[in-house]
Design goal:
Blueprint lengths: L11 H20 L7 H25 L6 E4 L7 H6 L3 E4 L2 E5 H26 L18 H6 L20 H13 L23 H8 L15 H29 L9 H19 L10 H11 L13 H14 L7 H7 L5 E10 L7 E11 L4 E10 L9 H10 L1 E10 L7 E9 L8 E5 L4 E10 L2 H6 L4 E11 L15 E3 L7 H6 L10 H14 L3 H14 L6 H13 L3 H11 L10 H11 L3 H14 L7 H12 L5 H21 L3 H21 L5 H15 L8 H17 L4 H13 L3 H14 L4 H11 L9 H4 L1
Parallel strand pairs: 1-3
Antiparallel strand pairs: 2-3, 4-5, 5-6, 6-10, 7-8, 7-11, 8-12, 9-10
Length: about 800
């Protein structure tokens, strides 16, 4: 194998040797044969020796300077004291960079497990509900697979995912988008990949459960060497192995360059600070290594965390693995494109979850002896001051079928009372505690809260509990760690709160802390000078909302908006508008909503609803109804604010004091009567009542204070319905008039989706299918889940099976 420098990740010789080694190992494992003394071991030694030489060469290229020589240590019967000392570690010394073969072997084995987990997780996330995983070669290329597998929570994956401007899609929207992407997948030339973006709202599979399966009989990593997965698994494993070795060896090289080689004379806290400095220096140097994935740090520190589990935080000369990752993540998030790592880091922290001792519980069943079982507990904290507790029940169903076994497990969980002790502490010196709190939680039985996995002889059910630190902690102690110090679980009667009332909240009790938000903000430099401030200030603002501290939340959001209107994500803007409305600051809310609705911005739900309330506060009924109408019909029934807008528009339309609303009520009643008559085949009476409805609408237009879209749209719809009741074929002249009305609506408001869809309907009636398709695509691009868009597709799908294939996909 050559020792050429350059991009190690693309080194064909290295990848081929790696593949031969793993295939040989798995073949031997499957056959159940013992390794011979020479052949497999010599191959493994040769591979790792060459691998280390190439990684060392990459370090030299990235650091652009002198690097200490590489010294490899093997643990044999003839090993001397130095070899034995370095065999299980990586360390820097004056005479070179020492790497132990035992360390490399153990890292290699651990990364096999993690590569298997990441492969399974990816397959799970791209699989349809209840269906089998698609072939990987129809989803992603081999070379792109490591990056995709390491994107634990992509921006378009999780149920509350955010688009680039922070727009949170609802799970149904994500589901529909995935199905449409699959339906419209283009036919690529032979040898090319038809890539389908991961857009399905599925959570991560459980890492702890996966590791349990790995330890059980019958599990073999050979399954990943099946023809359709082999290239992907091998590519991912070698990438992880390279990333891991590059980071740990670059970390030691950084110690060498920073002058950390002499024995440190100081406290454990000072030693930890040198480790953090080496981590940050290594990360900076790795920028020069082509192919290195920063997301792999999630995996590296998952492995490091497994080595620390039997050592208390106070005794460690390194910071906890999770804290090291968080400190590095803070640096990564400030770099170009770093914000895309935010969700992945928070998700990846679950891989570092600490495992508490299983808690024995006796669950009482009616008229039966108690059932004794162990509740397994894991916990971790993310970078947004949120602590996560995972409670596991693993048992055979006692009274239900296997399919309904989760209900029994949910009942078991509902019998638990959980008490948590939380601490806010320094990330480098965890013995420095800033604040303490006590949280209490009693679960309700809700399927949405649970993750379920069916095993051979049991059903594992997991409940995840999230505790968000109070806003005072976020503001006062920036960059601290929220940790769970203890978990106490006791038996308690189940909470029978109806499921429709939502998940039971967790209550956090903590000593009050006075925070002067004005003083805090006054002490901050502009956001342009403090790149990391925006993220933690947003966390604090959202937390003030959670804790119903509305004045402080509004002030914090306002400060961010004043500094840079683009500093707030979509949902933060909506939240700020809502806060302004709750505080009766209507003019401020209106100004923000109007800016968010500027033509160059994508249409998003909620801002029309804000304008609706602002107009209503001034008793501007017609204008308020217009905004409610636009809120409902631009985004559509899947918009977050649709139901509120529909209810509010009904209340506005019922206002007898407004003459336009009075005519609108007459129109609504007449149109309903006309439709009923038409449905019963009474064409002439239906036409007469339609004319009455038309007169009411024209009178409403005459009385209206402005040229409202809702009156134009309703009148055009009415004329279109009248056309369908005319004698014989639809009258061309009348259809042309309706077409002109819809075209004018589009001119006045290019994002008004119903008008686009009606124009597509007219084009289809006129026999111009290409125009109908292009017009529908415009509506689809604005709001793909608008009811008009979805219904039109369903109505024309059967008679026109090729209609919905967008032209750009067939070129």
């Amino acid at each position: 194998m050559t020792h050429a420098s350059g991009n190690l990740y693309e080194n064909a010789s290295l990848r081929a040797e790696h593949a031969r080694l793993l295939i040989s190992e798995f073949t031997r494992e499957t056959a159940g044969t013992a390794p011979t003394e020479r052949e497999p071991l010599s191959n493994q030694d040769s591979f790792f020796d060459s691998l280390l030489q190439q990684v060392h060469g990459a370090l030299a290229e990235a650091s652009s300077g002198e690097v200490p020589p590489l010294r490899v240590h093997r643990l044999t019967d003839q090993s001397d004291a130095v070899d034995r000392m370095y065999a299980k570690s990586v360390a820097a010394a004056q005479d070179g960079l020492h790497v132990g073969f035992q360390f490399v072997f153990e890292l290699h084995a651990a990364l096999l497990v993690i590569a298997g987990y990441l492969t399974e997780n990816f397959l799970w996330q791209v699989s349809p509900l209840g269906g089998s995983a698609p072939p990987l070669d129809r989803v992603v290329t081999v070379d792109a697979f490591p990056g995709e597998a390491l994107s634990l929570y992509s921006q378009h994956l999780i149920p509350d995912a955010e688009s680039s401007d922070g727009y949170r899609k609802r799970p149904f929207q994500l589901l529909m988008k995935f199905l449409q992407a699959s339906r419209f997948a283009p036919t690529e030339p032979a040898g090319q990949i038809a890539y389908i973006a991961r857009a399905f709202p599925k959570p991560l599979i459980d890492f702890a459960d996966f590791c349990t399966k790995v330890g059980s009989e019958g599990f073999s990593f050979g399954q990943y060497l099946a023809p359709d997965r082999r290239a992907y698994f091998l590519r991912l494993h070698i990438h992880l192995l390279l990333d891991g070795l590059l980071f740990v060896m670059m970390h030691e090289l950084a110690h060498h360059q920073l002058g950390h080689l002499d024995p440190i004379k100081g406290s454990i806290g000072e030693q930890r600070k040198t480790e953090v400095a080496a981590d940050l220096a290594a990360l900076s140097l790795l920028d020069a290594v082509p192919g290195f994935q920063p997301r792999s740090l999630l995996i590296v520190f998952s492995y490091v965390s497994s080595l620390q589990r039997n050592v208390t935080a106070e005794q460690m000369d390194h910071p906890l693995a999770g804290n090291r990752l968080l400190i590095l993540a803070e640096s990564l998030l400030r770099a170009a494109g770093g914000k895309d790592l935010h969700a992945d880091v928070n998700a990846g922290m679950a891989l570092l979850a600490g495992r508490a001792r299983a808690v024995p519980i006796a669950v009482g069943w009616p008229n039966e002896d108690p059932e004794n079982l162990d509740i397994a507990v894991a916990h971790y904290a993310d970078m947004d001051y949120a602590a996560h507790v995972l409670l596991y029940v693993d048992r055979r169903p006692r009274h239900s079928s296997w399919d309904d076994a989760w209900k029994e497990n949910a009942f078991v969980l509902a019998n638990l009372s959980v008490a948590l002790t939380l601490v806010l502490r320094d990330r480098v010196e965890p013995e420095r505690v800033f604040a303490r709190g006590r949280a209490h939680y009693h679960p309700t039985v809700r399927a949405d809260d649970l993750q379920i996995d069916y095993r051979a002889d049991s059903v594992m059910t997991r409940l995840e509990l999230t505790i968000e630190a109070p806003p005072e902690w976020v503001v006062t102690w920036r960059g601290a760690e929220l940790a769970i110090e203890s978990v106490d679980i006791t038996y308690a009667p189940p909470d029978r709160t109806p499921s429709e009332e939502g998940r039971a909240p967790a209550y956090l009790y903590y000593p009050p802390l006075e925070v002067d938000i004005f003083r805090v903000l006054g002490s901050l430099p502009p956001l342009t000078e403090e790149q990391g401030a925006r993220r933690w200030l947003l966390v604090a603002a959202r937390r003030f909302v959670t804790y119903q501290r509305l004045e402080e939340a509004a002030r914090l959001y306002e400060w961010l908006y004043e500094q840079d209107p683009g500093s707030l994500f979509y949902h933060d803007l909506v939240s700020l508008c809502g806060l302004q409305l709750s505080l009766e600051r209507y003019s401020e809310a209106e100004a923000i909503a109007l800016r968010a609705l500027e033509p160059e911005r994508p249409p998003r739900p909620g801002f029309r609803a804000v304008l609706m309330q602002c107009h209503a506060s001034r008793n501007e009924i017609q204008e308020a109804y217009e905004e409610a109408f636009l809120e409902m019909f631009v985004i559509g029934v899947y918009g977050d604010f649709f139901e509120d807008a529909r209810q509010y528009s009904a209340e506005l339309a019922a206002d007898p004091s407004d003459p336009v609303m009075a005519r609108l009520q007459e129109f609504i009643r007449a149109r309903a009567a006309a439709k009923q008559a038409a449905d019963q085949g009474e064409r002439t009476p239906a036409l007469a009542v339609y004319q009455e409805a038309r007169v009411s609408l024209l009178e409403a237009q005459r009385l209206a204070r402005a040229d409202f879209i809702f009156l134009r749209e309703l009148l055009a719809e009415l004329e279109f319905e009248i056309c369908f009741l005319a004698d014989g074929p639809i009258l061309t002249s009348k259809v042309a008039a309706v077409k002109s009305q819809y075209a004018e609506i589009v001119r006045l408001m290019p994002t008004f989706v119903p008008a686009h869809v009606h124009l597509a309907e007219i084009a289809l009636l006129e026999g111009d299918q290409p125009l109908a398709r292009r017009t529908w695509e415009k509506a689809y691009a604005i709001a793909p889940f608008n009811k008009f868009v979805v219904d039109f597709r369903e109505q024309v799908e059967s008679p026109n099976p090729d209609f919905h294939v967008p032209e750009w996909l067939t070129q």
